[in-house]
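Lab meeting, action items carried over

1. Structure of the two-component assembly. Owner: GW. Status: complete.
Input record:
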Amino acid sequence: MDTEYRRTARTTPTRYRERARYDRETVHQILDESTICHLGYLSAGRPVVLPTTHARLGETLYLHGSTGSGPLLAAAAAPSGLPVCVTVTLVDGLVLARAAMHHSVNFRSVVVLGDARVVDDGAEKLRALAGLLDHLAPGRAADCRPPNPRELAATGVLALDLVEVSAKVRTGDPVDDPEDCALPHWAGVVPVSVTAGAPVPAGDLASGTPMPTYLRERRR
Amino acid sequence: MDTEYRRTARTTPTRYRERARYDRETVHQILDESTICHLGYLSAGRPVVLPTTHARLGETLYLHGSTGSGPLLAAAAAPSGLPVCVTVTLVDGLVLARAAMHHSVNFRSVVVLGDARVVDDGAEKLRALAGLLDHLAPGRAADCRPPNPRELAATGVLALDLVEVSAKVRTGDPVDDPEDCALPHWAGVVPVSVTAGAPVPAGDLASGTPMPTYLRERRR
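Predicted assembly:
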């Protein structure tokens, strides 16, 4: 398998081309680090963007939802696949330049274009749902009550193959025009990070229930 | 003005209706707290979702981009407005239930539907661009070199009135079925937060340039 996704007209940016990345490693890291993605699809001909969790298993991205939810209903009505765009964005910093128009954000994002299919195969569906749990907390899928037939029937899983994919990455300092660098304004980066705090037991958790290792050792 | 946005069929969820919020205060707080939004629009009939910064000024959401970027080109070709969906999501926690299918995420999100218009009025455009800077760091617009005519000509601003708007908020513990509460699995919430670190001066910043008050006092 190529180490890079093949670029297409749609995944080639018109500006800031130096920020584009196509290597699978970068794309996978961004997808895996973000808790959520934003799913874009068409509803009655108009764009709708919804936040949802995701899981990457190899070269497939899985999403899930109630079979009565908008995206799953739309997918069920599109037997040849639902046109979607799934975007994941991590914000790493606020970039303050001397010039107003050179302000920016340090970020890492991935855009996946394609036609999502409803997962019909029972084994693939179970793998995807386990992947969604392990995406939230690696190891969790093996440490909870598995879905029962009623729950499985009420839940739909979408699969989107990672074929038309690109990442964008901006890092580092502001880039001001040379003639602006003598201006008196402060310039630099405010780092932004996402952190996970100490897990808080549910109010109805039996006292003495140990916190699992995969949570104690978790770092984000 | 009503304290709530008027709900429509498109902003009334089919599930978890108790999570929906329509009050302007909640919507404004979520929009203002998030550094970025995700903009959904149609490109050649397919959905595209891009991350971008935003600013809310009163009841209008402003976005900006190069006049050569996808969304601005699409908006320029849609004189009666570009159908968009702008979504903002803040992740507050990972919700681990005893049952696989009751896992969730604590989050606050806003979905804005509407037709975005290109801002032609020069004064409104300047206000919007200042708003985008102050959204990154309140006070910044007054402390940088303003846009010059060339930069203004190369930049487009989109305005989206906050009319068809809804928020969704999930908070608190996992909700397990009663018969699952005796299972031995740990349950609870892993809090997630976004923090801004100490500002890092640009490598080419003249030594002795003071860090502005609005950055020193910034907390996220």
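2. GW to write a short summary for the group page. Key points so far: The longest strand of chain B covers residues 82-96. Strands of chain B lie at 20-21, 36-43, 46-57, 60-66, 82-96, 104-118, 155-161, 164-170, 188-196, 200-201.
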